[in-house]
Amino acid sequence: MSSEPIERRVSYLGDRLKGRRCRNCGKEYFELKNYCGNCGRKSFGKMEDIDLFYDKGTLEICTLVNEPTNKFTKLGNYVYGIVSFHNGKIRVPGRLTDHLTRPDEEIDFSALEDREVVPRFRRRYSVERCDIIPTISLAFTFADEYYQHQEYNIDKPKKEHDTPGIVGYGVYTSRFRIKEGTIERSVPFIDEDSITAAVEAGKLALIHSGIDSSLVGKVYVGSESNPYAVKPIASKVAQVLKLGEEDEDVQGVDAIDTEFACKAATSMFKDAASLVNYPKSNVKYAMVIGTDNSQAAPRDCPGGELDLFVGFGGAAYIFGKYDVIAEIEGWYSCTSDTPDFWRRDGEPYPMHGGRFTGDPAYFKHVRKAAKKLMERLNLQMKDINYFTAHQPNFQFPVKIAKELGFKEEQYMPSLQVARIGNTYSGSSPVGLAAILDIAKPNERILVVSYGSGAGSDAYSLLTTNEILDKRKRQKMTVKYLTENPFIEYVDYTTYRRLKTGM
Amino acid sequence: MQNRPAIVAVGRTRFGEHYEKEPEKIIEEAWLKASQEADIERKNLEACYLSDYFLPITNKFGLEEGFLSELTELHVPMEVTRSFSSALSNACNAIQAGKHNIVLVGGIEKMTDRWDKIRDDLMLLEDPWSYYAGCTPEANHELMLRAYIKKYGISDENLKKLNIALAQISIKNHLHATKNEYAQYQRKITLEQVLNARKEARKPLGLLDYAPISDGASALILTREDFAKKFTDKPVYILGTYSATDYLTFTAREDMTHFLATKMAMKGALKTAGITLKDIQIIELYDQSTVMEMISLEDLGFCEQGKAWRNIYESCQDYKGYYEINGEKLFVNMNGGLKADGNPLGATGGAQIFEIFKQLRNEAGERQVKSDKELKYGCVLELEGFGTKSYVYILGRE
Questions:
Q1: Fewer CB atoms inside 10 A, N or C side of chain A?
Q2: Going by DSSP bridges, is the β-strand pair A28-29/A47-51 parallel, antiparallel, or unpaired?
Q3: Is the model's pLDDT at A162 over the cut of 70?
Q4: Half-sphere exposure of B145 toward its Cβ, with a 13 Å CA cutoff?
Q5: Which of B120, B138, B250 sits opposite A70 (nearest CB)?
Q6: Is A138 close to B132, i.e. CB distance below 8 A?
Q7: What DSSP line would sit under A443-484, residue for residue?
């Protein structure tokens, strides 16, 4: 019973919660109404858009849905209710997401009601594998739990730098974890995927940078778990986050997906930086997102070894020349045709070459890129404050760091794989974010990614004074995400169910 | 009201699951019963007004008018609407305007064939925005109850009483249905069963608070006032009718604790009938859920806002066959209501009219109400969607 025009209309309105307000009487609508019901014809041309995407609402009333309609059955049971914005001026239907209820749990609805909630961008419901994946922001989480409500305040740029660099970043991972031994890995909620993580990370990056999203001229999304073989994640990111100047529902931004296993995103850092530096590009800012719902076959199947390490999440970086927090000093990239890890078209899970993924693949490329860049920039170990490399597991990045001569205090702060797992394209970007969260001004960071297939990108970044100012803008740091009291641990069966998704 | 339309005959099928019957056979059964009652021939009919909520969706049915034409071998004007009340409304307009003299009004629904998809279809038609956000047909009722509890500050002992009162509605309707040979569930249920169903569902309302899905049909013959006596000695007149509409999206409505459309429809109906609320002793309500029955009693004006549960609770402590509201008797859903009689959407309104017709003519057999006063007026409330449309009919013998 799906009707295309309605599906699209719902996406248009629902992906980024928005409505209209009458400038005459102030009445608000969760609908793109061209006139006000109170004021009639007088209100033509006097309706203004209202944006609820960065807003927070109140869960007014709720109930439990335990027999959902067909498309929602994969969600199991969930709390559904009515959320109001602007003191009840706008009311919208929505469900609580990131919320698992135990079968024997008696729910006190009055304890959930009247609490503040944040709209979240999620899959709407499950569809056939051949269909368009419907998304919506009519899913909410409590503002005082894992995911904080943060305002998006646009600041005027203060300082132009000669060297382009990072002007803001954001890291997103879900509230759920699986813990096996000492390793914790993030697990997406059932309505999350690499698309929703990309949007979340991008949103957090915009909040952190304080730049006007309409000035972003290009967005790159690197992923190896795009649920579509053909259809970019970047277009969704651009539309939902309103990147580039908006004109008749079209965003004036170039959006592109990139793919090179786990270095799909880091590879584009230099492209983004170069683009904003090219005087005629007219691109003030460029966004690069690495996102993955890291794929792995179930443990007892071929390729199932990966299931011990995979995580979920994304990191977004905005590059520009204004109010830069870390300048890009230089880079070195290397590539060889090394088939250490692959996924054939149409296959749901990747395969890997066992021991072949170590020396001839990961170590060879990371070592090469790091050494060459240090040579090129004439850097010594003591010149580098922090080192981070791609983190497929705990051993590899530690081994290469030691081999290159780095000390624990240089490489340990970035090691997040034991807390959120291998986030594939998001892995080294998350490691970098963990460093940027704590780095002082004028510190040098060496980041080396690795993508199977194979290649590495090494970057040298130098932090600036602005890093301290901008830090105040972001509550959701890597530390916050990994040491959050609202993290919920799930068992292996639940983990696989959530990861497989809707 | 001028040129009052008169109901001269009614007919219906049993509601429930009619797996073995095709939709057109069910409507045929209802129409034949009505035509036999008033001894009306097919060729007397000048027009037909049929209602079904979504038969073409649930049964891959073609143009309903074509099926009806084949069935009756008539080529008269025929129109299809979504609810029995709206079909009847069109029929009334035609008769009052003097366009037709004798018309057939019928309603049909066959929902059980589509048991696996019916809730999706219902929800999508009822409130698409909420559907996309994960709503179910039941959730809106429960949210309305939550809003009601909050708005009127009902807590502790009173909340317990409210919950029992809602259960009593269901128990009462099942009790009434035991005397209705057409009802889907002709059995009693207990308070324990209703409460256990809620507990099992872990939410404010359980399985036994909701009307079922049903197959069934109903029909009536409507004539001009001066034609009525040709067919029956005891016609029942439509004295007043009105309808009103409200937003499709429940959350967008100003008041989430009441149905504005019902309030407006009742006001209009009383005005056109020229009677007051006190004249009405018997009503058939649209109890898709027990909450809906409670709220409707308030919307129609019989109970004060926020107080209906008290009236119900007190009336049901020792139930005598009616609600006692401020010393007045009110007979509600004598056929068992949607809960126990069944709710085949397009046909439901016909069964409600059927009941009032029988009661006013003193032909309801075992379920005939025993009133101290003469039973002069009856009222029917039918809703479409979740209160998106509301129809009120006031019927009378005079």
A1: N
A2: unpaired
A3: yes
A4: 26
A5: B120
A6: yes
A7: -EEEEE--BTTTEEEEEEEEE-THHHHHHTT-S--HHHHHS-
Which segment of A99-108, A224-233, A295-304, B41-50 scores lowest on mean pLDDT?
A: A99-108
Q: In this model, does residue A1 exceed pLDDT 50?
A: no
Enumerate the residues of chain B whose CB falls inside 8 A of the CB of residue A60. Answer: 147, 150
Smallest Cα–Cα separation from A222: which of A130, A155, A330, A314?
A314
Go through the domains of chain A in sequence order and give each one's CATH number.
Answer: 4-17+52-142 (no CATH), 160-500 (3.40.47.10)
Among A62, A262, A329, A352, the one annotated catalytic: A262
Parse chain B into domains and list their residue ranges: 6-115+213-231
Q: How many helices (H) and strands (E) does chain A have?
A: 13, 24
Q: What is the mean pLDDT of residues A65-80?
A: 94
Write out pLDDT tens, residues A5-50.
Answer: 666 666 777 899 989 999 999 999 988 889 999 999 999 999 999 9
What secondary structure does DSSP assign to A347-394, as a single string? -SS-EE-GGGGIIIIIIHHHHHHHHHHHHHHT--GGG-SEEEE--SSS
**CATH classification code of B6-115+213-231:** 3.40.47.10
Residues of chain B positioned with their CB less than 8 A from the CB of A72:
134
Q: Is the pLDDT at A2 greater than 60, yes or no? A: no
- With CA atoms as reference, the chain B residue closest to A138 would be B133
A294: confidence class by pLDDT, cuts 50, 70, 90: very high
By the CB < 8 Å criterion, does B121 face chain A? yes
Contact assignment for B256 to A92 by CB distance below 8 Å: no
Q: Is B175 on the interface with A (CB under 8 A)?
A: no
- Using an 8 Å CB-CB cutoff, list chain B residues near A91: 251-252, 256
Tokens found for residue A200: 């979340």
Q: At what angle do helices B290-299 and B156-177 cross, to 10 degrees?
A: 100
Closest alpha carbon within chain A to B250: A93
- Partners of B142 on chain A (C-beta within 8 Å) are 63
**What single letter denotes the amino acid at residue A415?**
L
Residue in A6, A8, A67, A69 to test binding to B, most B beta-carbons within 10 Å: A69
Cα B355 to Cα B352: distance, rounded to the nearest angstrom: 5
Instruction: Choose the catalytic residue: A22, A390, A443, A466.
Output: A390
Residue A105 is classified by DSSP as P
When pLDDT is averaged across residues B246-257 and rounded to a whole number, the result is 93
Confidence of residue A395 (pLDDT cuts 50, 70, 90): very high
The answer to whether the Cβ–Cβ distance between A14 and B132 falls below 8 Å is: yes
Sign of CA dihedral A85, A87, A92, A94: positive
| Identity at A6, one-letter amino acid code | I
Catalytic residue (choose from A224, A327, A329, A466): A224
